[in-house]
Amino acid sequence: xxxxxxxxxxxxxxxxxxxxxxxxxxxxxxxxxxxxxxxxxxxxxxxxxxxxxxxxxxxxxxxxxxxxxxxxxxxxxxxxxxxxxxxxxxxxxxxxxxxxxxxxxxxxxxxxxxxxxxxxxxxxxxxxxxxxxxxxxxxxxxxxxxxxxxxxxxxxxxxxxxxxxxxxxxxxxxxxxxxxxxxxxxxxxxxxxxxxxxxxxxxxxxxxxxxxxxxxxxxxxxxxxxxxxxxxxxxxxxxxxxxxxxxxxxxxxxxxxxxxxxxxxxxxxxxxxxxxxxxxxxxxxxxxxxxxxxxxx
Length: 297
Fold this sequence. Notes:
14 strands, alpha/beta
């Protein structure tokens, strides 16, 4: 290991030593980085105040939805649109306030999407009441996440289904970087959301009864993520799919028979944190529009 540091300058040497003491660096050799044109710029544009939003049950594997609204109903952000027939406690909420524009179905009346028309600059929220994760038990945290419709953002491995709230997971994984071609800079997206990110991680740590695996890109500017508590940090380097939680699970804690591991997208961790800080289902996200056909990505 000493020979690895011989060619490095003094500053870099000590930074690597510090990382090695706190966590481990996992270097991937297999994979491929596809250098596509149209990388997104770190610049956020405002959205239209009047537009359509769709919540799609088909985005969730093995879900049988049961409707809770009809066309013409007025909803707020956090209002229940539908729930899981097999587990009615798992609700799916509207991300915005507005009116139910349409309910679209496919073959055999399969529910495809619930469309909400949002109008007005300000979002009206259902109030679920703020709650401190640190001072709450697991049951209270589960109940608030289920009631507000935030719970479905947690995925359970194997199979990638919605996590079962009755099961305490063996581990939770969160990736802080996207290694896919023309993927967004998640550190830029999270830079103004430190408090909500920390609260979301506190919540996940309470749900699993242990620290959360927070996986960082080695060599990147991780100053924001390295300040976070209640996490076990690991660094990944190498080509895509180094940023995939599935690959990270394989290298940190492979799934064995009977295991239950949870994964949560970084922006969804922030949404969980906002819920406990403000009592609102604040589903705002920053989305990257990129690629060679986009004039200003």
